[in-house]
Amino acid sequence: MKTLIQNGTVLTTENELQCDVLIVDDKIAAVGVGLSKEGVDKIIDAQGKYVMPGGIDQHVHYSFVYKGSKVRGFETSNAAAVGGTTTVVEFVNQQQGKGLIESIEAYKSSDVDGIAMVDYAFHVVMTDPRPEVIEEIPKLAEAGYPTLKLFLAYKGQFFHADDEAVINALTAGKQAGITIMVHAENADMVDYLTKKLIGEGKTGTYYHAASRPPIVEAEATRRVIYLAEMANAPIYIVHVTCKEALEEIKAAYQRGLSVYGETCAHYLLFDESVLDLPNFEGAKYVCSPALRPKEHQQYLWEAIDKGWLNAVSSDHCGFDFAYQKHLGYGEGKSFADIPNGAPSVQNRIHALWTYGVCTGKLSKQRFVDVISTSPAKVNGLTQKGHIAAGYDADIILFDPNYRGVMGVENSLEGVDYSIYEAMEQIGRVETVLLRGEVIVENAQYVGKKGQGRLIKAKPFGSAYDKYKA
Ligand code: URP
Ligand code: ZN
Ligand code: ZN
Predict the structure, then answer these.
(1) Which domain holds residue 323?
(2) Number of structural domains, the chain?
(3) 87-141, pLDDT tens digit by residue?
(4) Quick check: CB of 183 below 6 Å from ligand 1?
(5) CATH for 441
(6) Does one domain contain both 27 and 65?
(7) CATH code at position 125
(8) Helix (H, G, I), strand (E, B) or coil at 299
């Protein structure tokens, strides 16, 4: 099957060029001006559209459970597709008593295969760092799951990890090119502040931010950087939210360390004031780390513009508002009972274009890098994230002239709210190809359940670049 995308403006991290893209079966075969139509089965006219690599969202939760509440799963991954994301990387918790690879493969067979509507890869979350599990870490490389995350936050939850687990993971993983990722918040500081606030009767949604201020994130960020330095290994910090944590990352760069990190769309767009919305609406924005005072946003924009942070992810978490978020409502309840996380996979790319590119905060080239190219490299998704011959034909056609509003009405995320409700949207993903097949047409999902495939990732992602002599 040959498909020719004609007359679009191809956007890459380097440039933009009006040209054609030829797809043969599932791969890009050629990119060039005036490509021949001979033998072509299907022509897609991309006049007036940007043609970009499909989004890679390296931080999604389709299996996250918070104090008994479970998010919506891969049956809602068509939301990623209409949002222009063609590959998601899911965090899979190691199950108690099971190995790392075993946990991923059990989840994959029961909840992903035959269901996913975009391609997927996995990070494993190490929850049980006993010696035989540490020994298994290098084997993740060959299994195709070369990224491992530790939650320094969430004291008392089974997935909480301590410094020893981080050191052991860094040390065991580095020869095999496993990238260690951390949720960097000091769990004891959060625990102390949470108990103190609740003891003072400060239980409302707004106090979620007060229970985990920037210092909590800065401390853990600094600490894991030192742990990585001691282990002589790279480290990846997920969802960086504040100036103080960024300063730690920048200082590490200056010391020549390999410290990579991402932020998420909601930290760029929202500040902590939304946690104070009436009628318990603040609960919609309860995520960790917490939203910050507005002044932090300019530092985050600068960080993605300058490349100090390499990706903008969604940290997608599909908890509903009516029941799950309300678990923190009422007598004897507090912000600490609200499931952490917000849905965002459908809006990540549109939000970043509207509030980043259209406001001049981000060039189109940096946009492509942070939504697709760089996360592909960090995660070892070597056939994804770029428009050039040989890459998977995961392509989005983006109409920059569209004007609309975001909101739950058009959401496929399977929950009853959107954090982006009624916000202006400029530009829209019109068409999406997943390995050469059209899965979104006129901004509507037209693919098939189960069309997404497992992408086995390669070790030595870009956080290891400095280690490749
Ligand atoms: O609040 C959040 N971010 N929920 C998802 C789990 C995590 O910490 O990434
Ligand atoms: Zn996290
Ligand atoms: Zn997360």
Answers:
(1) 55-380
(2) 2
(3) 999 999 999 999 999 999 999 999 999 999 999 999 999 999 999 999 999 999 9
(4) yes
(5) 2.30.40.10
(6) no
(7) 3.20.20.140
(8) helix
What's the rounded Cα separation, in Å, for the pair 356 and 301?
A: 8
Residue nearest to atom 4 of ligand 1 (CA): 341
- The answer, yes or no, to whether residue 469 has pLDDT greater than 90, is no
pTM (2 decimals)? 0.98
Query: Is 314:57 a contact under the CB 8 Å cutoff?
Result: yes
Tell me, using a 6 A CB cutoff, whether residue 288 lines ligand 1: yes
> Which residue out of 65, 149, 288 has the highest number of ligand 1 atoms within 8 Å of its CB and is therefore the one to mutate?
288
pLDDT tens profile 265-289 = 999 999 999 999 999 999 999 999 9
Mean pLDDT of 444-448: 98
331 inside domain? yes
pLDDT digits (tens, 9 = 90+) for 130-161: 999 999 999 999 999 999 999 999 999 999 99
Does the beta carbon of 64 sit less than 6 angstroms from any atom of ligand 1? yes
pLDDT at 468 over 90: no
Same domain as 44, residue 65 = no
- Whole-angstrom CA distances from 374 to 72, 116, 142, 153 are 27, 23, 22, 26
> Would 81 be classed as within a structural domain?
yes
State the Cα–Cα distance between residues 67 and 286, nearest whole angstrom. Answer: 14
The answer to whether residue 459 sits within a structural domain is no
**Residue 299 and residue 246 in contact, taking contact as beta carbons nearer than 8 Å:** yes
Q: Beta-carbon neighbour count of residue 108 at 10 Å?
A: 18
Q: How confident is the model at residue 196 (pLDDT cuts 50, 70, 90)?
A: very high
Within a domain: residue 466?
no
Q: 346 CB under 6 A from ligand 1? A: no
Residues 210 and 134 in one domain: yes
Same structural domain for residues 16 and 163? no
Ligand 1 pocket check: which of 182, 340, 345, 348 to mutate, most ligand atoms within 8 Å of Cβ? 340
Q: What are phi and psi of 313, to 5 degrees?
A: -105, 180
- Reading the block at residue 468, the tokens are 């490749």
CA distance 401 to 424: 13
Cα(39) to ligand 2 centroid in Å equals: 49
Calculate the CA dihedral of residues 94, 95, 98, 103 and round it to 10 degrees.
-60
